[in-house]
Amino acid sequence: MKRIRYSKYVPDPAGEMSMEGLLSALSDYFLQSGFNDNFWYEMQNSDGEQTLDELRRALEQALLNGEMFDEEMRDRLQQMQMEGQLEELIEKLIERMQQEDYISIDRPWQAQPHDLSKQSSIGGQVGDAQQQARFEITDKSLDFLGFKALRDLLGSLGKSSFGRHDTRDMATGIESSGAAKPYEFGDTLNLDITATLSSAIHREGLGLPLNLEYSDLQVHQCEYQSSCATVLMLDCSHSMILYGEDRFTPAKKVAMALSQLIRTQYPGDSLSLVLFHDSAEEVPLSQLARVKVGPYYTNTREGLRLAQRILQRQRKDMKQIVMITDGKPSALTLDDSRIYKNAFGLDPLVVSQTLEEVSKCKRAGVLINTFMLASDYGLVQFVQKVTQMCRGKAYFTTPYTLGQYLLMDYMSRKTKTIH
Predict the structure, then answer these.
(1) Residue 93 shares a structural domain with residue 210
(2) Which of 280, 299, 287, 228 has its CA nearest to residue 252?
(3) What is the domain-level CATH number for residue 325?
(4) Same domain as 131, residue 21
(5) How much of the chain is in helix, strand and coil states, percent to nearest 5?
(6) Do residues 173 and 89 share a domain?
(7) Neighbouring residues of 185: CB distance < 8 A, sequence distance ≥ 6
(8) Residues 172 and 165: beta-carbon distance below 8 Å
(9) Contacts 24+ apart (CB under 8 A), 137-141
(10) How confident is the model at residue 41 (pLDDT cuts 50, 70, 90)?
(11) Domain tally for the chain?
(12) Same structural domain for residues 188 and 304?
């Protein structure tokens, strides 16, 4: 007679672990700004990639010190560490993250079987190559991290969903919220069937066939919902991590949450990202998580100039610049492309040229909202001057409340300026 032997089920942590929970535990590591890194190491590894050894250490810390497991699972992981099995679990997790397209691994060199006999002559290069193997987080991971940041921020605000930017104007669209009106050339042909047939019956009487004329056409009215073009100016000067506080990582998380919000709730809006330091450059939003700060000054004027060029290409009802910074303008691009720098106080030349660029924004109808992560007296005066010139808003906030202020400002803004 055939016998079946049953054994106790032993769960496989690598196969049953939630990848979303693991990414949440690693979010601070993936979005790090360079606050805890050695400066000279960052200068030599400025390509934005991270090594697999760093990922292994981050995974070990997340597994042993994180809060994603219950007490029983934490005891099991600690036992695996004592038995030397934790490294094997981490390798399986890295392999699973790669298979499920959460990370992509770039291995500079793989040892072939026939090369193993040459390891003694190579002098340990196989191990060095394994240590130098690098990885990048994929767009799938970035989407999840952006969703997580948005969910956390909206949860702290006590809101669950938000609509589009409503106005007092009426237009013909898909969502009906007003009485029908006669069709005019250029209206969206969103016919109000009841009103159209009633008009034809009132004109000809009840009979068949019922002839429809152009004057009988009635269309639904809906509230006009405007579109907005936003340029997010993010200060990545070294001061964002200089004073014992990481201000850049929260700013990156807010930028990712804003991108996720626009993509899901405001599909007609556009968002561009500008990093400003000694100079300024436009960065794709897909590269935001990999951006780190550097030893740079703050060239606010160059950031404003680039933001205006980006907004000129957009055909939107509203155009605005959202600037996140913690420092005073301390650099200026001269006409001969040289960078003028002065980090001591508010330099009159830098301030005057920056305010001149603010005036150009005002004349172009571009709104500037400033989110300031510092409260120096001279800096407050400068920000207030920018706010008065552009009739925008200034928020003096902290890295912990930045997201709440920025998202609430974006979602509660009404398009009063276009009426």
Answers:
(1) no
(2) 287
(3) 3.40.50.410
(4) yes
(5) 45, 15, 35
(6) no
(7) none
(8) no
(9) 137/30, 137/102, 137/103, 137/289, 137/290, 138/101, 138/102, 138/103, 138/104, 139/286, 140/101, 140/102, 141/23, 141/30, 141/102, 141/103
(10) very low
(11) 3
(12) no
Tokens of 331: 């650099």
Token reading at 4: 């079946």
Query: Rounded to the nearest 5°, which phi and psi values hold at 381?
Result: -60, -40
Count the residues in the chain.
419
Letter string b/e over residues 89-121, b meaning 16 or more CB atoms within 10 A of that residue's CB: bbeebbeebeeeebbeeeeeeeeeeeeeeeeee
The two structure tokens encoding residue 279: 């100079």
Rounded to whole angstroms, how far apart are CA atoms 43 and 65?
A: 30
Exposed/middle/buried for residue 331 (C-beta within 10 Å: 0-12, 13-18, 19+): buried
Q: Are residues 320 and 411 in the same domain?
A: yes
The region of weakest confidence among 88-102, 134-148, 213-227 is 213-227
In 54-78, which positions are buried (b, 16+ CB within 10 angstroms) versus exposed (e)?
ebbebbbebbeebeebeeeebeebe
3-class DSSP state of 56: helix
248-273: pLDDT as tens digits: 888 888 888 888 888 777 778 889 99
Sole residue written with tokens 């799938």? 140
Q: Determine, yes or no, domain membership for 6.
A: no
Identify the domain containing residue 178 by its residue range.
Answer: 167-225
What average pLDDT does this structure show over 45-51? 59
Q: Is residue 101 part of a domain?
A: yes
In a domain? residue 3: no
Choose the final residue of a domain: 225, 244, 274.
225
pTM: 0.67
Contact 230, 272 (CB under 8 A): yes
Q: Distance between CA atoms of 146 and 258, rounded to whole angstroms?
A: 8
317: tokens are 């009802």
pLDDT in tens, 290-342: 888 877 889 999 999 999 999 999 888 789 999 988 878 889 999 998 999 98
The whole-angstrom separation of Cα 354 and Cα 288 is: 26
Cis peptide bond N-terminal to 295, omega within 30? no
